[in-house]
From TrEMBL:
GO terms (BP aspect): regulated exocytosis
GO cellular component: lysosomal membrane
The protein's name in its UniProt record: MAPEG family protein
Keywords: Membrane, Transmembrane, Transmembrane helix
Organism field: Photobacterium aquimaris
Compartment(s) of residence: Membrane
Transmembrane spans: 14-34, 46-65, 111-140, 152-175
Lineage: Bacteria, Pseudomonadati, Pseudomonadota, Gammaproteobacteria, Vibrionales
Length: 179
């Protein structure tokens, strides 16, 4: 079975994002670049979590704002897609919003579990993945209209950085145990 050019482009974007996510998470775990190994209180772990959720949340706010602004200035879309047939632009903005919301739900759960359950010396992975989330969203937004290959790296960078954290979290809990 041969893959189309689009499929090959998506695979390249996904593979590159996976590799980048592995490198960043591994570096965070091995080198503790933010020196979180000194953290001793739960309030400090929660502060890392809170700060790490700021960037991903910003992208949800921006997505909602972009769609709301567009709808306000679009006579065809001002009533919302539930009451009218959405224009192509409104559909694109809604798709960006929907995908960002989906990614953010996963991110909130994984970042929270990581900050509460993983060794403090590994906490640097969360803010670094937050940065990957932001970079991924920017690239996904920029590439969306050019099709799947153009948005694949951005999507995958957002997704894989969170999924890899989750996999490491689960494996660590199974191998080392919670208690």
């Amino acid at each position: 079975m041969s893959l189309s050019n689009k499929q090959q482009g998506v695979i390249k974007g996904m593979g590159s994002a996976m590799l980048m996510s592995i490198v960043v998470i591994s570096a965070a775990i091995l080198y503790d670049p933010f020196h979180y190994s000194n953290i001793s209180q739960i309030s400090q772990k929660l502060a890392v979590l809170g700060l790490s959720l700021v960037l991903p949340t910003l992208f949800l706010i921006a997505s909602i704002g972009r769609l709301a602004k567009y709808r306000f200035f679009s006579p065809e879309d001002i009533d919302g897609s539930g009451l009218s047939s959405a224009t192509t632009e409104a559909v694109v903005l809604q798709s960006l919003l929907q995908n960002t919301l989906e990614q953010l739900v996963i991110t909130y759960g994984v970042y929270t579990a990581w900050c509460l359950l993983m060794p403090v010396a590994w906490l640097s992975a969360v803010p670094l993945c937050s940065i990957l989330f932001a970079v991924g969203r920017i690239l996904f937004f920029k590439g969306y209209r050019q099709g799947a290959p153009a948005r694949a790296f951005g999507f995958a960078l957002t997704f894989y950085s969170t999924v890899l954290l989750f996999i490491v979290l689960v494996v660590y809990q199974v191998v080392v145990g919670i208690y």
